[in-house]
Design brief:
Chain lengths: ~250, ~110
C-alpha cells in the first residue's frame, strides 16, 4: 500500500494515476519494494548538536562567546584588534578566525599578544560548530574569558549555523548600502547586535544611518544597535562598555 | 552555496539511520523547506546528485516540499502570510514573530 495516498489498500480501488495525476510525484514501484521512514529531522541537527555541546562547555567555563558576522571588508578584524587594545587586559580574550584561505587575520590578532587560531574553511563559506569544538581544545581558551569568533565574510550562509555563541554580532560598514538589512534579512534576523562601523566615513558616502536602523528593526525589532568607528574611535566606548557589562553578568 | 554543506549533513544523517534502522539503500528523500529559510531549493536540486554520489542514496529521487511563511502579530493577535522576514502584519502594520517558514527538515525517506 502506498504510505502517502493509501492506494493499493483494499478500500482504495481507484487507479492511482487517475486520482492524482500530476500532483502525486512519487514512484510507485519504489514504494512497493521499499519502506517509508518518517524522519522529521532538521537538516542542521548535527551542527545543532555540536553547538549545544559547545554552549554547555562555555557555560561551565564561564566563557562569553560572540560570533561576528558581516560581508567581506566590513572591518571585523580591525574592530577586534581595536577592541583588544581598548579593553587593555580587563579580562582574558581569545579569538578564532574563519577565512577560506590564509593566516593573515590570526596574525593581526596575535600581534596584539592575544591568542588566536585560524580556521581555513577551504571551499566552505561559513564556520560550523564541530570546527569550533576542536579549535577550543587547540587554542586553550581560559575560564572567565571572552571568545570572539570571526566568521567567514559572508552575509548569507553563516546565519544558519549556530556555533554555540551567546550572540551573533553583525557588522555593517557605511561603505555598504543602508538597505543591507532588508537585502540580507536572514542575517539581521539571526543577529542580536548590529554594529554600524566606519562612521567616520559618513560625510563621504551616501549612507542613511536612520534608514538603516529602521530597516534592521523592521526585520528584527529586538536588535541592539551601536554606531562606531574602529579606526577613529568614535563612540567605541559604547561597544567596549557593552562587552564589559556582559562579562560582569557572567560572574 | 551552503546548500552543499546542508546536503552533506543530509548524507550523514542518512548514513546514521542506515545503521540504526537497518537499510542499505535510499530510493527517495523528501525535504521540507520553509519559504523563509535561507535555502534555495534549486541549489539543493543542483547539488543533490553530486553529493549523494557514491553513498547509499546515489540515484535517489529528491522531492522538495515548501512550507509557507507565517507570522504572528503580538499586538493584534492575528496571523499573516509572510513572503519575506521583514513583512509587517497585514492587519495593523506592526512587526511579526515568525511562527512557520524557517524549517529545513528531512521529512521522510523511502528505503530498501
Amino acid at each position: 500500500m502506498c504510505g502517502i495516498c493509501g492506494c493499493g489498500s483494499p478500500e482504495q480501488k481507484q487507479s492511482h494515476k487517475f486520482v492524482f495525476k500530476r500532483e502525486h510525484h512519487h514512484h510507485h514501484d519504489e514504494l512497493n519494494t521499499g519502506r517509508l521512514i518518517q524522519l522529521e529531522q532538521d537538516l542542521l541537527s548535527k551542527n545543532n548538536t555540536y553547538a549545544a555541546q559547545n554552549r554547555e562547555y562555555f557555560k561551565q567555563h564561564n566563557i562569553f562567546v560572540l560570533n561576528l558576522v558581516s560581508s567581506p571588508g566590513a572591518g571585523k578584524t580591525t574592530l577586534l584588534v581595536e577592541t583588544i587594545k581598548a579593553l587593555n587586559g580587563q579580562f582574558p580574550i581569545a579569538v578564532i578566525e574563519g577565512d577560506q584561505q590564509t593566516e593573515h587575520d590570526a596574525d593581526r590578532i596575535r600581534a596584539t599578544g592575544t591568542p588566536a587560531l585560524q580556521i581555513n574553511t577551504g571551499r566552505a563559506c561559513h564556520l560550523e560548530a564541530m570546527g569550533i569544538g576542536q579549535a577550543l581544545i587547540e587554542l586553550g581558551v581560559k575560564d572567565n574569558s571572552l571568545l570572539a569568533i570571526e566568521n567567514v565574510g559572508n552575509l548569507v550562509c553563516p546565519s544558519s549555523f549556530d556555533l554555540g555563541e551567546a550572540h551573533k554580532v553583525v557588522v555593517l560598514s557605511v561603505t555598504e548600502g543602508d538597505d543591507k538589512p532588508l537585502k540580507y534579512s536572514d542575517m539581521f534576523y539571526a543577529a542580536d547586535v548590529m554594529l554600524i562601523n566606519k562612521t567616520d566615513l559618513l560625510p563621504y558616502v551616501d549612507f542613511d544611518v536612520d534608514r538603516c536602523i529602521r530597516y534592521a528593526k523592521q526585520v528584527n525589532p529586538e536588535i541592539q544597535i551601536i554606531c562606531l568607528s574602529s579606526t577613529k574611535g568614535d563612540n567605541f566606548t559604547a561597544w567596549t562598555d557593552w562587552l564589559s557589562e556582559q562579562m560582569q553578568l557572567l560572574s | 552555496m551552503h546548500e552543499l554543506s546542508l546536503l552533506e549533513n543530509v548524507r550523514e544523517i542518512l548514513e546514521d539511520h542506515a545503521q540504526s534502522q537497518k537499510f542499505k539503500k535510499v530510493s527517495r528523500v523528501t525535504l521540507e523547506i520553509g519559504k523563509l529559510s535561507c535555502i534555495e531549493p534549486e541549489a539543493l536540486r543542483f547539488g543533490f546528485d553530486v553529493v549523494m554520489k557514491g553513498s547509499l542514496a546515489e540515484g535517489a529521487e529528491l522531492i522538495i516540499t515548501d512550507l509557507e511563511g507565517l507570522g504572528h502579530c503580538q499586538q493584534c493577535g492575528k496571523n499573516t502570510i509572510m513572503e519575506a522576514l521583514y513583512d509587517p502584519c497585514s492587519h495593523c502594520g506592526r512587526p511579526l514573530t515568525v511562527v512557520q517558514g524557517m524549517e529545513m527538515k528531512i521529512k521522510d525517506l523511502v528505503v530498501i
